[in-house]
Amino acid sequence: MGLRSERRMGRRFPLKMDVVYRLTLRGQEGILSEGTSQTVNISHSGVLLDMERPFPPGVAAELMVKWPVAAEEVTPLQLHLLGSVVRVDQRGTAVKVSRHDFERWQGGFAPAAAPEKPVPESASA
């Protein structure tokens, strides 16, 4: 019996943090699912989520992770992650991260901008 090879690119940190997620199908408009979850562990290249509902590999994932430390001990932060689901098993849903950035905590995703309404022309006398 051989040893199982380790495919992870970075050290995993066992941190439980609140997550707001949005899942979409690549190449299609619209949201497949939105909800909340918790991280099981996280690294610079991926995150393992404890999800109630499994999603198939290949689904695009956008995550907002509530960061446990505030910037300059004042401003709450969220870690904005973009990636895709790469594995689902009994441990959780694994997301490979392709892009990440820290932002001020907004409680999740910014609301979609309302479509602009045309300004009615004023009647001239």
Q: Can you put this structure into words, describing what you see?
A:
It is a single chain. With 125 residues, the chain is mostly beta strands. It has a domain at 18-104: Roll (Pnp Oxidase, Chain A). The chain is built from no helices and 6 strands. Strands 1-2-3-6-5-4 form a 6-stranded antiparallel barrel. The radius of gyration is 19 Å and the shape is globular. It starts with 17 loop residues before the first strand and ends in a 21-residue tail after the last strand.
Q: How do you describe this structure in short?
A:
Helix content is 0%, strand content 44%.
* Class based on secondary structure composition and strand pairing: mainly beta
**Sequence of secondary-structure elements:** EEEEEE
Mean pLDDT: 81
CATH architecture of the domain at 18-104: Roll
Q: What is the straight-line distance between the termini?
A: 91 Å
Strand % is 35-45%
CATH superfamily of the domain at 18-104: Electron Transport, Fmn-binding Protein, Chain A
Regions with little confidence, pLDDT below 50 for 5+ residues:
1-6, 112-120
